[in-house]
Structures are given as structure tokens and as C-alpha cells.
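Let's see one such:

===
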Amino acid sequence: MALTMTAGTLASGLKKCRLVVDRYVTIPMLGCVEMRDGKLFATDLDLEIEIDMPKDGTADLPLIDFRALAGLARLIDADEPVTLDGTDSTDHACASIAFNGSRYQMPVVTTHGKEEREFLPRIGMPEAPMTATGNMGLSAAFRRVAPFISSEETRYYLNGVCLSRDRQDRRCLVATDGHRLGWIVVPELEQADHLTSDLILPRCLVAALLALKTEPQGMALHPDRGGRAQFTWPGMRLASKLIDGAYPDWKRVVPDFSDGALVYDMPRGPVLAALKRLLAVGRATSGSFHVYIKLQFGGEGLRLQSRTGDNLLLEEKIATEGWEHPACIYLNGNYLTEALRAFTGADTVCMNFRPSDLENTTNTCDGPVLLTAEGDPLHVVQMPLTSRKVRWGDE
């Protein structure tokens, strides 16, 4: 039997499979896609995707090389009907794709000979309550905390987003790389009331959710036996293993300013523009990707300073109403830029911190900095750079 569908339908399904299929694979079958029971399936053993394919006919095809099939499908007119079938030549098993009088025999993977079809392994999703997520804004929430996910493999438990609770016992999404931390409150996650512990969704799953650019309609989370997560859309399913580890007690590093703190309202747009210029020149002159910034809050406004590799001064001044208590803080400019960008739509971002000594005219901050915006559920904590003060002659 054969399957018939349009080239556009095939190319669209394969484009989604690209989120899962690795560019370089050491196991040949993981570089393939599977078509069985009217579904297109791909996996890398940690993340899997399954897509319903509108088609005529039924057939179970051998595992077809993904790169070859995707490369061909995207070069055929989208409205052109294509027919896929699994055929055996006299020497080896293969699959073929035919369209407009043309026919291509596609490379396949088989390890059991022609008599048996090879199927891709499944992660396996235990029974778990499905939570409707259509109106949660999950994708937007994941997108806002994604910049804070760690890429350091030695601390694997930070390589994802944690579904947790904040100090007010509200459901939130948390991500940190040890230098900065972001969390966003998602009240609608209270619908998943069967979850009693923190769960860590891996970075690959978060990246796939963001790349699909459509809000998932359902979510199932199963914390037992290593943990599984599944997100569904009409005609599509994305599943992943959860990270098997204990997330740090992130609430301990969130500063508590209940007994007082200095609050400085920064104009987000002008500060981002100034940081962009400082980073451009700083990277070009120092040869380093990370550029360190000194922020000075004073009566005349905000000053942002950096130093080149030759210790030349780079300075930006932003006119504001001024502050009663002058203060300064040293931050990683790259991290501060990403944090400010995460506050999408906010005109003003509040920087909250406690200086070392209020009686000191410099009011240097050596503790965590909390960034917030009015009416925004996102919070960002960034650690200052106490070891960088010597570059400005402050020590």
C-alpha cells in the first residue's frame, strides 16, 4: 500500500521534525523519521514528536533518512501530490517517493532484514491528568525565562526550566545559570493540582515549544519513574523526559527587602540603547564577549561606564530626575541587557538593592539585585561583580 499527500503537507510535518532530529547522530535510526498508522514520528531518545498526516491510503514505511526526505520535499511544489511507498529492490529494502512522473528511491535504515520493519523507540508516557493550557500563555512565559537557563553540563539540573512555587506559594516557572535567576508567576498552572513537587523541564523541550510558536492546548506532567512531560496541539504531540535531579532552593537567593532597600527606576529604552553601544565598543576593544558595566545613580541622573582592554573609559549619561541616595553597582553588561529585554512592554524597570553602607557616599552594592516592573509577573535576580571594582580604581 502507499500514502498520497501534497508535498506541502509532507514538508510542513518534516519541518517540525527538524526540532527533534539531531544534525549529527551516532545511531543511524535516530537520523530517520517513521511513518506508521497515519502518523509522522521522530525522536532523539529524550524528546519525541508525533504528527497526524492528512493522506489517502495506508502504509507502514521503513525508517526513511530525514535529511534526504526533507531536502526533497521542500523543493517540490507545495500543491503537487506525492506518493510514498515501501518497496524492496532485488538487493536491499528502500522507500520511494513519486510525483509528477518522477520517482526517487530513498535511503532507509533496517537492521532485521527485509522481512521485519524497524520502528523508532518511544519514550513512553504513563497515564497522567491532561491540563488544558490554551489560555495560560505558557509559551510566552517560557520565552521570558528561557534566557536564564544554564548551558553548563556539569550542573545538569540547571539545564531547564523548573515548575515550582514562590514564597507566596504561587505556581511559577524558574530558570537560573548561577549568575542570574528569572521567575515568572503563572497562576493558571494551579489547574495542575496533582503536582506536589518541583519538576524540571529540559532545555530541548523548552526550545521546541518556543520554535513551534503556537500555544499548546494541553499539558500532561508525570513526576514518577524519571518523569515525563507531554504537550499537545490539534494533530500533534510533543513529549520529553524530565530532568531527573533536585533543583536548588532558588528562593534562598532571592533578596528580601522587607526591611528596606534602595529602589531606582530606570528608563528601559534609553538604558538598553546605551548598553548596546557600550557592549559593541567593549567587545571590539577588549576581545571578550562579556563586558562589565558600572552603574552610578546620582542627583544628576544615571551614568553607565565600562573600560576597554587598554583601560580607556567608555561612559554614557542618561538624564533622569535624580535620586536622593547616590549609589553604584557593578554588573555583567550582557546579563543586564538580557534581563531588560525580558521585560517586554515595560517603559520603566525598577532596580532594587541594599547598599553596603547607606552612610557611605558611594553606596556600593555587594548583594543580589532584584529587577521588577510594575504590573509584570517577571522577576529577575542578578549578582553584582565585587571583584571588578579595582578596574575603576574604587579599591
Summary: Residues 130-169+184-245 form a domain with the DNA Polymerase III; Chain A, domain 2 fold (CATH 3.10.150.10). The longest strand covers residues 81-88.
